[in-house]
Amino acid sequence: MNNENQSIYEFDFNLVCEYFSSMERQGPGSPEVTMKALGFIDNLTEASRIADIGCGTGGQTMVLAQHVPGQITGIDLFPSFIDFLNANTCRLNLHGRVCGIVGSMENLPFEAEELDLIWSEGAIYNIGFNRGLKEWNHFLKKGGYVAITEASWFTNERPDEINDFWLNVYPEIDTISNNMAKMEKNGYIPVASFILPESCWIDHFYDLQVAVQEEFLIKYKGNPTAEGLVAYQRYEAQLYFKYKAYYGYVFYIGKKM
Ligand code: SAH
To answer: Under CATH, to which class is 23-198+247-256 assigned?
Structure first.
């Protein structure tokens, strides 16, 4: 198979999990950016209920827990990511307030209007931005917030190579203005959007993968799936460096009407 046309979803589930589980993050982001997004949210108290959906190993969950009051539930499909998160909550003495659970963003274990805040960094694409905003709205209290990062186009036109790549892996990728309109359409006041700095991709995501890739290639020498996974990640990073003027991650903050 040509790796350049292979989507991350087609690789072996366990290998993908192993590759990413040794990293603090599984997507672009940083503690500074999580804090910046938090700056737009003003409704939290010790009684607040917060969900971090697609939390991965919980890099941003820990930042949230250290800076906001309330109970935080991290949810992810991969059990080993949740084990990692729960081990960290004990280590940081946050286990009374933070709990990681295995579950799907398609079938969230919350009551209607239970949540004050839904956080989701680099994960909503798994069900699509529009669908996620629409379905998750049900679980938020009136006046509650969503804070979500999503890969977005910066321009209306772009070179074919990067356009075709994204249309293959995530055809729902859209411009910032269209995504703000989707928030509005799904019952949120669009409070803010801001572009994540390049360092969120480079220093906090791609650079961290270099050592992981080398170890992975030694451990799985001759395994075409593992080698394909590394080649795919390297290709994705190369595309980012070539076309970062045209796309990036954007934080979207909305308030339920
Ligand atoms: N928020 C983390 C992880 C982002 S990667 C960070 O920014 O570092 C996307 C995460 O979504 C992965 O951990 C993946 O396991 C999770 N995921 C994928 N599909 C999911 C689903 N249906 N429900 C819950 N989590 C899912």
So the answer is: alpha beta
